[in-house]
Amino acid sequence: MLKDITIGQFFPGKSIVHRLDSRIKIILTIVFIFMLFMADSFYGLGVGIIYVLGAFLLSKIPFKMMLKSLKPLVPILIFTGILNIFFITAGDPVFEWRFITVTDMGLRTAAYNMIRIIGLIIGSSLLTYTTSPIALTDAIERLLSPLKKIKVPVHELAMMMTIALRFIPTLIEETDKIMSAQKARGADLETGSLLQRAKALVPILIPLFVSSFRRAEDLALAMECRCYHGGEGRTRLKQLKTAPRDYVALVITAGFVFLTVFADKLA
Amino acid sequence: MCMNSFLQAENLKFSYINNIEEPPVRTEVLHGVSLDVKKGEFVALLGHNGSGKSTLAKCFNAINIADEGKVYACGFDASLEENLFPIRQRVGMVFQNPDNQIVATIVEEDVAFALENMGVEPAEIRRRVDEALKTVGMYEYRGHAPHKLSGGQKQRVAIAGILAMKPQVVLLDEPTAMLDPSGRAEVMKTIKMLKEEMCVTIVLITHYMEEAAQADRIVVIDNGSIVMDDVPKRIFSQVEKMKSIGLDVPQVTELCYLLRQQGVDLPEDIITEDECVEALSKLLLKK
């Protein structure tokens, strides 16, 4: 169950998408999200989806992974769909039965929002699939570095993210171990009401917390031994450098933004 | 100060202070320890849990600051604030749990961590990281995620992370305690290579007597004081004294000790299997 978590999963590769500067990739992802919400026609959304699918193809990530990232979203998609269909009453009714009215506008908004959510997930998972967590936190640190002037602890935040990502697999392993240990002592985690099952998690969470604190203490000591003293005067092994391909990607994306905005006028 | 001694403690006293209780409770852990470690020496530090051996090691890289007495590491006075980073660069420390000392999500990034902190130029970081990874034999794994490595491999990555700083001394606090036998052998091989090929001074804290037997010198700590300090052969020949402190001797030494008690004529200073085999076969041939 814990092995299915795909958040922050990274698929190493050498494709053009992998090689783009991570800062550019973050910016492109944000631009893409704006693109999805600016589009107010099927044409515009279509352009957005073509854009993200094109990027997916270029990344050579197995198509299966995209479906996998969408799977946990199915309930949210259905929920959004239903909400939009039944609660938007503006527009021409296409179906009426007692108090239920479905309008063409409701249907359209539902479809728009579902496409937007799908696009959002594909876009952001493409970012994490093709960018190593280190490059990602590094890029966030660089992009946010202007905020240092107003005393935002940018370096510390980025370091915390790196460590969090580093310890996800370790803590998952630990959780599995604690669960087995508690099951071996007769803990029942799978049956009973929701409340009972939530209560059964307490003997798993407490040891996990205690051991995390112990790990944190050890890690802090090990970091101190390796001369860690905050972000001041720090250099990096991997320097982020923009290459011509990054500018090409920016120009292409700008083109797609233009197409999205003017899609219905052009069509 | 003697030029030859790399780590030097003079009448070192150290206490932990428990601030949670009111009034704060002071527990003195080291009661006036004096120790000299010479350049290129491989010293094993023995003592049962709570004897103060880890505390002593942490005094040498300025993690713990002595309450009384003096500590010099590579010629730097550990009590001075400005010597903190020079000391930590020269005196690296490897801990017990490999999972809790790896910071980054990629092997080479982790090895680079100390160098990044020190503000080394990126090209130089690259060179030193590759060198350190090759030294411990983990170069092929440089792009891997640490959590996918075995315990012994992780510990070697941790050692590489320290080596990249080009330290003169490496303190190892029970580096093999959480490893399986093959991981333990890997790490011991790496430690010996550091000593022999790179002339790094090694201080190894361990509970495995077979590992301690490979050192040049053994220092035994009991209740915050040094009780024995000699070459392994002479330390382990005092089987009864070691047992009274609550420590073991290598299995072969114990075997010879028991045989001697039964009247078998064996020398007292056997600490390796080879020596034991030789002595026993000599004895059998005589008969």
Show the helix and strand layout.
The complex is a heterodimer of chains A (267) and B (287).
Chain A: H1 16-19, H2 22-38, H3 42-59, H4 63-70, H5 74-87, E1 93-97, E2 100-103, H6 104-130, H7 133-144, H8 154-184, H9 194-200, H10 202-225, H11 244-266
Antiparallel strand pairs in A: 1-2
Helix pairs in contact in A: 2-3, 2-6, 2-11, 3-6, 3-11, 5-6, 7-8, 8-10
Chain B: E1 5-18, E2 25-38, E3 42-46, H1 53-60, E4 68-73, E5 76-77, H2 84-90, E6 91-94, H3 107-118, H4 122-135, H5 151-163, E7 169-173, H6 181-198, E8 201-205, H7 209-212, E9 217-222, E10 225-230, H8 232-236, H9 239-245, H10 251-261, H11 273-286
Parallel strand pairs in B: 3-8, 3-9, 6-7, 7-8
Antiparallel strand pairs in B: 1-2, 1-4, 4-5, 9-10
Helix pairs in contact in B: 3-4, 3-5, 4-5, 5-6
The general outline of chain A is flat
Please state how the strands of the largest beta sheet of chain A are arranged side by side. 1-2
Name the CATH class of chain B: Alpha Beta
* End-to-end Cα distance of chain B: 56 Å
Radius of gyration of chain A: 23 Å
Structural class based on helices, strands and sheet pairing of chain B: alpha/beta
Mean pLDDT over the residues of chain B: 89
**Portion of residues in helices of chain B?**
25-40%
Tally of helical segments of chain A: 11
The average pLDDT of chain A is 85
Euclidean distance between termini CA atoms of chain A:
47 Å
CATH architecture descriptor text of chain B: 3-Layer(aba) Sandwich
Q: What is the general shape of chain B?
A: globular
Low-confidence region ranges of chain A? none
How many β strands of chain A by DSSP? Answer: 2
